[in-house]
Amino acid sequence: MLTILRLVAFALFLYAPLSWAETVLQRGNGAEPETLDFHKSSGVPEANIQRDLFEGLVTESADGKLQPGVAESWETSADGKTYTFHLRKEVKWSDGSTLTAADFVYAWRRALAPETASDYAFILWPVAGAESYSKGENKDPASIAVKAVDPHTLEVQLKAPTAYFLGMLTHHMAYPLPQAALEKFGKDWTKPGNLVSNGAYRLSEWQPQSHIKLEKNPQYRDAADVTIDAVKYIPTEDKNTELKRFRAGELDITDDIPSDQTAWVKENLPDTFRNSAYIGTYYYALNLENPAFKDKPKLRRALSLAIDREILTEKITQSGEIPAYGWVPAVEGYTQQTMEEKSLDKAARVALAKQLYAESGYTADKPLELEILYNTSDNHKKLAVAVAAMWKQTLGVTTQLRNEEWKVYLSSRSQKQFQVIRSGWIGDYNDAYSFLGLFKSDVGEMNPSNYKNPEFDRLMKEAETQADAKLRSEAMGQAERVLLADMPIVPVYHYTTQHLVSSKVTGWVDNVMDVHPSRYLGIKP
What we know:
Layout: H1 2-15, E1 24-28, H2 44-53, E2 58-60, E3 66-68, E4 71-76, E5 82-87, H3 101-112, H4 130-134, E6 146-150, E7 153-157, H5 165-168, H6 179-185, E8 201-207, E9 211-216, E10 230-234, H7 239-247, H8 262-268, E11 273-286, H9 297-305, H10 309-317, E12 322-323, H11 346-359, E13 369-375, H12 378-395, E14 398-404, H13 406-414, E15 420-426, H14 433-436, H15 454-465, H16 469-486, E16 489-500, E17 505-506, E18 522-523
Parallel strand pairs: 1-10, 13-14, 13-15
Antiparallel strand pairs: 2-3, 4-5, 5-7, 6-7, 8-9, 9-10, 11-15, 11-16, 12-16, 17-18
């Protein structure tokens, strides 16, 4: 009898619904991450993962709007310069220890410390004392006006009212930091088994050039509402390979799609194709330290005018991108600025480009020789080939192309080892300052052209301290016009996002910030 009962139990086990099976979301993620240390990373591939691992005082909803994160509420002083955040008492780190206001103080001090050498330190400069400490002018970390009033109350004082401050707090530079893990493991604190996080997921595996696996964090404050057990972020720089993997069911979400496959995707995979506006600009930065461009605004303008942005977006990218004649895309509370020559027809632009090129000292017998650096991607390559052809046809410029894997590319960018570099900038928050702040002369490595103009800096300083929204916007508009007159960059287009999202994925909401935390997603059985 006992044997029969065992057989029956075994049969029931075999045919029972596998409700306990792990649900895994497979996400394409572009390049192999540079690092998961959020004070030392600078790319979108890293930010996507960090958004699942960590949570700041303020976070985003599924549609990209601001909502309370670690802080359940906050108050602002009458002068707009002091914020008092009340942290949720139930928030813990993934190791079970309590997360406190002191973890934010520790994190922000490290983020701003000169020895950390964070490219993004300037994100926190609106905090009183932050900029001078970051620049090494003040060596006392206590001078940074962020204070733990008690374990669950954080007070932040700003040097001036800052309209975008709450949006800024969603950025990875404003995350809390697990001090015990960092002090115990040092530079290895971000490795699997060492990394302690406070977001919906914790780090489980990292196999370079294969995948990064995150597993659900049972200590997360809303763990009961997180339905996906694990997320695999899979680096795939070759977009055609990524498309093939999606079609084979190996990916549930792609990072992008091949630009030359857009029409095919729209026709054959319409239910999975997602295309929406995105708060970002694709551009080429010109190295102003290089002899080819230093003190040569006419040449820089000639190169910009020689590009036919309509052809690039209609024939090369083909995904609804908006030709960019200015730097800042459509953002809240700001009037977009454009190059003066936008109003000219194509023939007039070409004629002016040729005139400026000749006035810069170049001829058919003595052409300009350039090199474009881009990070490995078929889409970047196709665009660079097209831009090089336009420069050749219109001006006679001879252009070489150089591609580098993401980490090498970032090193070359940091060390200014390029003449022209393909780049893109995605707004860290929905405000023009997120774009224009990049070109302040004191920003450092994140200013790719090494652009410096005292008038631009003056106008940006005025915008930083201006409480009146209209006057603030006007100051930034004037600053952008100065930038476009100097032309240290060649804006190409304002982004849209292109993803393929499997029909079995639920909870995906298109939004201008293109943020899609895994905690809001689900997978149909």
